Amino acid sequence: MKKFGVGVLTGVASTVAAAATAAVTFHKVAVKPVIDEEEKFEETERKSARKAAQSHGSRF
């Protein structure tokens, strides 16, 4: 019975570790590039709004 309990605990621990690894990997591969792209777009939008305000008046 002792080996069964150790096996269950090992299985639960490895499942939790695999889920955490999958979540971190998904965040790095799918979520972070989208966030970085949005930040870059916002920065470009701010710069273009500033330039447009200089030459044509307020854009926003």
From TrEMBL:
Keywords per UniProt: Signal
Protein name as catalogued: DUF3042 domain-containing protein
InterPro entries the UniProt entry points to: DUF3042 (IPR021402)
Organism: Weissella jogaejeotgali
One Pfam short name: DUF3042
Superkingdom of origin organism: Bacteria
Region (Disordered): 37-60
Signal peptide (residue range): 1-19
